[in-house]
Write a structure and sequence with these properties.
- It is built from 21 helices and 38 strands.
- It is of the alpha+beta class.
- Helix 7 runs antiparallel to helix 8, helix 15 runs antiparallel to helix 16 and helix 16 crosses helix 18.
- It starts with a strand and ends in an 11-residue tail after the last helix.
- A hairpin with a 4-residue loop joins strand 16 and strand 17.
- The strands form eight sheets. Strands 8, 9, 10, 11, 12, 13, 18, 21, 22, 23, 26 and 27 form a twelve-stranded antiparallel β-sheet that branches.
- It is globular.
- Among the domains are: 79 residues, Immunoglobulin-like; 138 residues, no CATH class; 206 residues, no CATH class.
Length: 850
Amino acid sequence: MKLTWMEDNPTQKSGVAWGVPWAKGKLNREDSLVLQKETGELVRIQSWPTAYWPDGSIKWTGQAAVIDGISAKSYELKVTANKTKNEDMSVKDSHQTIEIDTGNMTCVLHKKGKTLIKSLTMNGVEKGKEGKLIAVTERRTVKGNESIRSTQQHDGEIISVEVEQVGPVRTVVKVEGEHTPSDPSAKMPFIVRLYLYAETETIRIVHTFLYDGDAENHFIKGLGIEISPSITGEAWNRHVHVTGDTGVYSEPAQLVQTRRFKGANGLYKKQIDGEILQEELESSLKAHVIENAIWNDFKVVQDSATHYKFVKRTNDGYSWIDSLHGKRSRGVMYAGGETGGIAAGIKDFWQKHPSALEVNKLSTDEAKMTLWFWSPDGEIMDFRHYSEHTHVTSAYEGFDEMRATPKGIANTSEAYLKCYTEAPAHQELEQLTTDWQAPPLLVCEPEYYYETEATGVWSLPNYQNPAKANLEKQLDAAFTYYKKEIDQRSWYGYWNYGDVMHTYDAVRHQWNYDMGGFAWQNTELVPNLWLWYSFFRTGRKDIFKMAEAMTRHTSEVDQYHLGEYAGLGSRHNVSHWGCGCKEARISMAGLHKYYYFLTTDERTRDLLEDVRDAEQATVNLDPMREFFPKDEHPTHARVGPDWAAFCSNWFSEWERTEDKKYRDKLMTGMNDLKQLPFRLLSGPTFGFDPKTSHLHHLGDGNSGGYHMVIAFGAPQVWMEMAHVMKDEEWKDMLVEFGQFYLYSDAEKREKSEGILSDEKFHWPMFAAGMGAYAAAKKQDSEMARKTWNLLLNKETSHTPLPIETEVVSGWTEIEEIPWITTNTISQWCLNTITALELIGDCLPELDEEK
């Protein structure tokens, strides 16, 4: 298969990991893979399976390679019967430490205690030491009219360290632990992975923070990673470089320019360019230089999505002074001296503000660098809910119950450290920044993804057919609007980046950010799937970037990872965790698995594992508790979105691990439905036993509309099940469901003996994908016509075409679509992509007046 770079090819030697799908039967377990440049040169790789087809052949693989800075623009990944065995990286796992030698750098990790990175060395020379995880909490007390705030740092305590993967190209180490404030009930667990690649000097860090505190009293002021770089030389040869909006800005600890020696005979220009002054300073110049102030502390703070500042001070206890201000720092800092130093960077630095990079005590032997995922210069992390009440009737919040707890949510960030034996030139630091902010990723061509049939049901774009080209234009307009809207509305920040809003308010020219269930989207009606299918069919990097951010956010912040709701997610709300509905539909694996398969990201793999048994949590929190009080059944489940979400979780676990227990869970529910007169149209609510996975029939036409069945990713997982499991009756049940949605009210009543009618089948556009499936299987042009009408007629689609913006003047000039809701756009795009694949040949000319 052909592989190309999603972004530009890496500018320096880089460790790269990526995933690819395989058609059924194409890759067997005994096969090997080789990576070949377009020149024919082979590149050493490490490969492993990440998913399987039911026949035992491999469905997805992950690969890792080290790519040099003069990399090819394209590669071929080939299957070979010749087993290749390369020597693994050197990893020494002892009782107290783990030592990893990349060939260019040696990293020693502690397995217990509060210091994770014991040392980083190159050629036996120490470059850094004492790397640890830190958190800062704030305590608030009020005495009369006096408000007192105090902060305290808590170093992370290591609980376990595991070498997860070791091979010839890369080593992955997983670390778990927690920060424990003085109040033991307010623990802050963490999961950190360190990635090291052969013959490189870089550590990639994936940091996950879990919240396990009391939102009313537990305030977090800072969160980050600290390391002590080994910096040598005179103060004037110790530098800090930071990347700004475009270039690099440098400052020394001590200027060589003085009042008398302006320019310092050309040395000042070299110094500010970041060069080490090799020659000894002339005595009269030196006498003046050593009188200059020594600046020990520097930091760049991104306090909003549109502002950062670079400040410095001489020492603790003295004032910070402004150096410069900018809009969006690219989040890389180097601190070093005469024998090199360390560069540190945070991915999505400005997008996930308030973030910061800081160096302290630069001129001393006790220098420290801190990568702040949440900068103490910002406000506290405020997990308190926005209201003391729920607002069910007026603002579409889920239940009267107040379950607005953040206990158990998480956030994942990515960071980098790189050791240097000499200071990098500005151009090199620029290149490093490019690679860290847009990590190199090899991807397949859309046609290849399509041919493997491993990524669901979607269509390749067709611009030759005028009607199809017109629809492609609408799909592009929908994505482009949200891409711009993220920036226009500044949907950024540590806890917000990756999510979008639910419903627009054209009167205020503002989204309903303050109105209960109409604020943050939280995966409602599966925008994640819309974006991932859009990426597969186009290969566009801007779509990937948005899908990546949404996956990172929704799989962490909108989902519970510990506590009573573990495995479930929170429905849409003003607070991401604010709604009383905690359900499997929000956290289901199908929303996030493609990011894992494409990038091999182990944190996302953890999340897929976390939800494999999410149905167990419904025993304590019945999703249908309002309509079906406790009865003889342990809990209840709608065939969709509840059971469909369980299907997504089980299917993901089965394809990744081949554990037949999860296949059997799927088959249990499928067989239960097959026994009923209305099959998939039964219920839609059932009694459910998580221990046995059985669905118990409660009658038909009961509480829970059929639009809820198909609007949350059920068609996507059910079609994938049908394709993989080759169950003809299941396929027929999908056809029946899609066909039924296309019937008139009279036909529905006739087919169901009066039990089912239009009043149970709201939002028919949501079922267009199912209708397309039915029309394709039946080869029925009249069904296809009715399906396209659901998508093209604005009365049923609620998506007036063409999708166009208009400019209005409010507090600023705003570009808006007055009728927009993320629910309808997500479903319209997803169903259109599916319909173009299944019944594209029946597409009528697009009538923009409908």
